[in-house]
Amino acid sequence: MGRTRGTWNSKSTWAAGIALAALLAFTGYAILSGGDEDTDTPSKGGPSASASASPGPSATYAPPDDWTEPNSWAALPRGERTDDRGSQVGFPQSTEGAVAMMVTANTTAIEGEQSNVDEQLRIYRSYIGAADQSSENAEQIELAAIQTDKALAKQMGVSPGQPLPPGAYVRSTVVGYKVIKKSDSEVSAWLLSRVVQKNGEMEKEKGSYTRSLAGAQWEDGDWKLTGDATARAQQEVQGQAQPAMAAPGDAAFNRAGWTAIRQAS
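The structure assignment produced for this chain is given below.
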């Protein structure tokens, strides 16, 4: 992850860096490796899970064949409106509303002319709190996303800056969450996401699971991802085992305490 400019001895700079890491956790750094792996098989050489909290994506795993109904489901609320960037905003002031914002902020699609730069800057401007908004942070978001777009272009056989091939995409969808701490003004949670990538119409879709930590605060009538909330979430889980990654339908999903997400009506 790119760090914001300045000294890490500054609390505000460190907090902003945490927010950027949380924002970039899925789409920016969950691009699947090239090769011939089957969908949902573990990535070779990927980072492994550990007891220390990290906002970045974690290693993938292979789901079992047997289906086990998730113990807990949630139909999260939708935002009341769409902002001028096309993002859903205006979530209710509740734990479910905060999680719904986190889920929406981590639901992305890179395909056609829609680049990772487009998605990351949209999410940054729509969902990051005011204290973490700055021209320097926006630049770091853009630079990191540019590198991801370049890597994608190379994998998919197109020149950087060109639209992806027909039928190609990278999509990230949050499939589960686990609340860490909640109040009327601040909520933190683990997010479990599935990222799928297809390099063209005739290519096989590949998939992986990632896990990320997020913290949100109630700010000016809506929930926003903030560096301070995410830093407090990291402190809250420090030294604890991270919830195991497992698809809804895997018995390990229930053992890890995940809540599955139903499509809102």
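Interim note for the steering committee: Residues 74 and 261 are 5 Å apart (CA to CA). The longest helix spans residues 135-156.
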